[in-house]
Amino acid sequence: MIQAITIEREFGCGASEIAGLVASLLGWSLWDERLTQEIAQLTESTPEAVERREWRTDPVVYRVFQDFLRGAFEGGLPPTNRLHSLDARRIAAVSEIAVRTALSSGPSVIVGRGSQFFLHDRKDVFHVFLYASRDHKIRRLISGGESQDKAIKLIDTTDDARAAFVRQHLGLKWPERHMYHAMFNTEMGESCTATMLVECLRQLERNRK
């Protein structure tokens, strides 16, 4: 039986809402913001700090500064005063721990954070990718309160940053479509997408019996 669903997505396609609907339909735990909280705890940081850095490569100046701090503070200061630096490398290092914590908690819907990569060898995990057209995603962000200029910038840059992070820290391409059992265009609507995803999962389980 399937114990978890991983949902990878293009930015702005409504994946968080769909994941919530899927978790509700199945009665499973939802690991979305909860994953961010878990990563924050593992890095001794805050969810807000993790959200600013997670699944984005670090700007060159920021990386150099973090390398400097890492070298300086690992030496002379006592443990209680060491700076807990937070950068992409550290987030990548603990994300797998957080994802496996989610999986071990019971039937779960796990959103992003590399879960499809970390759990790719598990036969009891169903991997899904969600996408939509650029225009649809921009309209969706604008309807959520973003300005048109910011919506366009977010749509045109966020997934590129995610792909760069995966390439740099996991040595893989993104989204690697062959890793997914199913891909859904979310323009059909959140409820319809969630319903089809659940039916696809149930059909897969029936076929395996």
Which structural class matches the secondary elements?
Answer: alpha/beta
- β-strand amount: 5-15%
CA-to-CA gap between the ends? Answer: 9 Å
User: What is the H-and-E element order?
Assistant: EHEHHHHEHEHHEH
The outline comes out as globular
Mean pLDDT level: 82
Helix residue percentage: 55-70%
The CATH C-level name is Alpha Beta
Polypeptide structure, described:
With 209 residues, the chain is of the alpha/beta class. It has a single domain (4-208), classed as Rossmann fold, CATH 3.40.50. It contains nine helices and five strands, in the order βαβααααβαβααβα. The protein has a five-stranded parallel beta sheet, with helices on both faces. It is globular, with a radius of gyration of 18 Å. The model is unreliable at 57-84 (pLDDT under 50). This is Cytidylate kinase. It comes from Silvibacterium bohemicum.
Task: Give me the secondary-structure topology.
Layout: E1 4-9, H1 15-26, E2 29-31, H2 33-42, H3 47-53, H4 60-73, H5 88-104, E3 108-111, H6 115-118, E4 125-131, H7 134-143, H8 148-170, E5 182-185, H9 190-208
Parallel strand pairs: 1-3, 1-4, 2-3, 4-5
Helix pairs in contact: 1-9, 2-3, 2-5, 7-8
Notable characteristics:
209 residues, alpha/beta, Rossmann fold, 5-stranded parallel sheet, 9 helices, 5 strands, globular, P-loop_NTPase, Cytidylate kinase
